[in-house]
Amino acid sequence: MKNQLLKSVLTLSAFMVTMWLSAQRQIIQTKFTADPAPMVHNDTVFLYTTHDEDYAPEGYAGFRMKEWLLYTSTDMVNWTDHGKVANLHNFTWAAKEISGWGGFDNGAWAPQCIERNGKFYLYCPLQGRGIGVLVGDSPYGPFKDPIGKPLISGKYDSIDPTVFIDDDGQAYLYWGNPNMWYAKLNEDMISLKGEITKDTNLTKENRGNVHFQEGPWIYKRGKQYYMAYASTCCPEGIGYAMGDTPTGPWVFKGYLMKPDGRSSGNHPGIIDYHGKTYLFGFNYQLNYAITNKHHERRSVCVAEIAFNADGTINEEPWWMENQNPSPIRTFNPLRRVEAETMAWSEGIKTCSHDDGISIVATKNGAFIQVANVNFGSKGASAFRALVGGEKSKNISLEIRLDDLNGKLVRKIQIPQKTKSGKYRTIKANIPRVTGVHDLYFVFNNIKGEDNYAYIDYWEFK
Ligand code: FUB
Asked: What is the pLDDT of residues 148-161, one digit of tens each?
C-alpha cells in the first residue's frame, strides 16, 4: 500500500508542476474528493466532500467511498483539512450489502449540511440503501444518526440530497437520479412533513428539454429560486433551471458549465460569500496525472460565477480553462496554523496525528504553498513548528517566499521523532519578514517511504 502511495505521489507531482504554472487548480490535492457541499457559517466556508479512495479500480462507476470529509477556508484560496466528519459506521443500517461492495465498505455518496437553531444536519446518501440524516452540535461534528433508519428509503432514486430553509422557515429536501424528488421537512429537520413528490420538470422523461441527471443543488437569490444539477451523463456538465417557488415549476436556463469529455462527472454546490457567488464542482485531472486510465478518483474545483440583469447566470468555461477565485482576505501567519492548511501542494498527503491531522511529505522536493500570507509591517523574526522525521537525520525544511525557488528565509533540519513516535518542537530565528507573500515549505532529502517527514502545525512570531 505504501509503495502504491509513493508511486501515485511521484507521478502526480510531475503533473502538478505543470498545473501549478497553469490556470485552474483543484483546491484539494492531498486526497481525491468529489461532490462538494459548501456551507457558510460564522464567516467560514465549510466544504463537505465525499472521498474517493486511492484504490478505486480502473473503470467507470468503480466508486470506492467510505466516508465524508470536511475542509474549511476563510479566504477561498487556502483550505484546511479537518479529515473525516462521518463515515458509513455512523449508520447501523449501512450494513446492508449492495452488489458485493456495500456494507460499511462503500456507498458514502454526495452529502449536504445545513444549520438550524444551532444544530447541524448532515444529509447523507448511502448508495442503494436510502438517504440518512446525522445531527451534530458543531459543523465539525461529531454527528449521530437520531432516527436509526433511512429518512428517504432506497426507492425514489435516492441519492444526492440538497436541503434548504426558505425565508418563511419551511425546509425542503430534494434528491434524485434520473428524476428529481422533493419533500418538506418538519422543523426538527429529521422527519418529513407530508408526501414525497416527483418533480414534474426535472425528470428522465423530460431529459431532452432540461438535461437533468443527478446532484441537484437548491440556491435562492432575492426572491428567485435556482436549481443547479449535474446535466445528463456522460460527460456531465452543470445545468440549471429557475423557478418562482421552492417547488418550481423549474424552467431550464442553460448550462453553468458545458459537459467536457475530460470529466465524465460533475456535481454543483453554490454559495454566496463576501458579496461573491461561487460554483463548486469536480474533475478527474489529478487521476489522469497518475494514469491515462479512468478511475473514480475526482478532485474538487471552484470558480466565481456572475449574474445577468435578468437573474440568469453566465456560463463558465470548463474547470481547466477557468480561474481560481481571488483571495478575499490575507492569511495571518502570526498564530498557530495547522500544517494541513494550503492553497496548493505537491508530494504531500495528510494523516491522523494524536487527535488531529498532520501533513506527510512523501518525496524529495515535496512542498506546500500557503497563499497571500500577511506578515504585517512589524513582521516576523522567529519560526516554530511541531515536526517529526522517520529514519533519516538529514531531512530539511526550507522556508521560501513568493515562489518555489523564491527567497530562502531559513533552512531547518527536521529531527527524527522520539523513540515513542512523538513529534518534536523546532524553533529558529529568521531574518525579519514583512508584508504579503506566498509562503512555501519545501522538504529536501526525503528518500523513500521509511523517510517521510511530518508537520503538525507551524507558527511565526
Ligand atoms: O460520488 C458518487 C456519486 O457520483 C454522486 O452521488 C453523484 O452525484 C456522482 O457524483
From this structure: 999 999 888 999 99
CA of 92 to the centre of ligand 1 (A): 22
DSSP for residue 144: B
* Nearest atom in ligand 1 to 296's CA: 1
**Tally of helices (H runs) and strands (E runs) in the chain:** 3, 30
Number of other residues whose CB lies within 10 A of the CB of residue 164: 19
Average pLDDT over residues 330-352: 96
Residue nearest to atom 2 of ligand 1 (CA): 109
Q: What's the grid cell of residue 341? A: 492548511
The amino acid present at 281, given as its one-letter code, is G
> Cell digits for 251?
424552467
Dihedral angle at the C-alpha atoms of 84, 86, 89, 94, nearest 10 degrees?
-120
Ligand 1: which residue has its CA nearest to atom 3? 109
Sheet containing 269-273: order of strands: 269-273, 276-283, 299-305
For 44-98, what is each residue's pLDDT tens digit?
999 999 999 999 999 999 999 999 999 999 999 999 999 999 999 999 999 876 6
- H/E stretch holding 285 reads helix 285-288
Check pocket membership of 236 for ligand 1, CB cut-off 6 A: no
The count of C-alpha atoms lying within 13 angstroms of the C-alpha of 417, restricted to the half-sphere facing its C-beta, is 17
455 CB near ligand 1 (under 6 Å): no
Would the pTM count as exceeding 0.90?
A: yes
Mean pLDDT across 258-262: 94
